[in-house]
Amino acid sequence: MRGRSGDFMEIEKKWLVKRENIPYDLSSLKSCEIEQYYLSFDPTVRLRKIDNAGCVLTVKSKVSAVSRNEFEFPVDLSVYDENSDKICGRVIKKRRYFAPAGGGITYEIDIFSGELEGLCYVEAEFPDEGSCLSFSMPSWALADVTDSPGYSNGDLAKFGMPHIR
Fold first, then answer.
1. Which pick of 6, 77, 109, 161 has the fewest CB atoms within 10 Å?
2. What is the 3-state secondary structure (H, E, C) of the chain?
3. What are phi and psi of 9, to 5 degrees?
4. End-to-end alpha carbon distance in the chain
């Protein structure tokens, strides 16, 4: 989560995981409940509610397999409810846990609920593409799904549960 408005280059990798393989005690980690939906897929425009306490409007555009331009703007929580009649696709619900990955990198472990129950990802954001591309997949991950069709949150909202390997 970025706590500022304006432009930002998001550089990240995403891996598919099984919940039972996560090597952290999730109850000991900082976490937040996320509910989000899309207002548009082209361009990507998302509203995200965090812990029923805050709301962020995000606009994204793909730059490369691991990079996206991302613009985030905090908005009043009422905006989330006021725009619920404009939803494109499904509402995504997940709990996000934050765990140390080493080297100043934090894992964001997403455990989905609702229609996506059983799906788990771990993501990591990086300061530049070089460090991203040289970062190894966690040993407890199943597959790198960073640029795999069906695994982005937008694709989950459009198409539902991906074929899990």
1. 6
2. CCCCCEEEEEEEEEEEECHHHCCCCHHHCEEEEEEEEEEEECCEEEEEEECCCEEEEEEEEECCCCEEEEEEEEECHHHHHHCHHHCEEEEEEEEEEEEEEECCEEEEEEEEEHHHCCCEEEEEECCCHHHHHHCCCCCCEEEECCCCCCCCHHHHHHHCCCCCC
3. -95, 120
4. 28
- Cβ atoms of 132 and 13 within 8 Å: the answer is yes
Tell me which residue of 55, 67, 58, 53 sits closest to 14, measured CA to CA: 67
DSSP β-bridge partners for residue 110:
96, 121
Question: What is the C-alpha separation between 157 and 155, in angstroms, rounded?
Answer: 5
pLDDT for residue 2 is more than 70:
no
How far is 97 from 28, CA to CA, in rounded Å?
Answer: 9
Does this model's pTM top 0.90? My answer is: yes
Whether the Cβ atoms of residue 65 and residue 146 lie closer than 8 Å to each other = yes
Tokens of 24: 């952290």
Of 6 and 109, the structure prediction assigns the larger pLDDT to 109
Nearest to 84 by CA among 114, 39, 53, 43: 39
